[in-house]
Amino acid sequence: MDEAKQLSPAEVSVMQALEMVIDPELGIDLVNLGLIYGVHVDGDSCEVDMTLTTMGCPLSNALDAAIIQVVTAVEGIEHCDIKLIWEPAWNMGMMTRYAKVALGIHE
User: Fold this and answer.
1) Which partner from 10, 21, 89, 90 sits 20 to 30 angstroms from 33, CA to CA?
2) Torsions phi, psi of 40, nearest 5?
3) Separation CA 85–CA 63 (nearest Å)
């Protein structure tokens, strides 16, 4: 996620909510996996910019449903759109230290 942009309080709440969405294959949340590229809150709507570990990920529909559920549970957010982004392509270097340790990846 682009750290240069200061997140609003609502966007911080959305990011915290997204930490509850676990990738079923890896057992780590989407934020720590580095799959969330950005969140944008405008009034009662939120757009989540994200990617997947691979194109054609069979879990994308399940992840979409979970994302919409947790985002719209954030106070003041009524609508959630998910924008899939493929550039830059996801790689293991985008994971947080927490995710790497949890997955046993040593740098």
Assistant:
1) 10
2) -135, 115
3) 15
Token output for 59: 């879990």
Q: 15 and 31 in contact (C-beta within 8 Å)?
A: yes
Contact call for residues 52 and 84 (beta carbons, < 8 A): yes
Task: State the pTM of this model.
Answer: 0.88
Cis geometry, peptide bond prior to residue 9 (ω within 30 degrees of 0)? no
Instruction: Name the residue ranges covered by the structural domains of the chain.
Output: 9-92
- Crossing angle of helices 9-18 and 60-72, in 10° steps, is 140
9-92 maps to which CATH number? Answer: 3.30.300.130
DSSP H helices in the chain: 9-18, 30-33, 60-72, 97-102
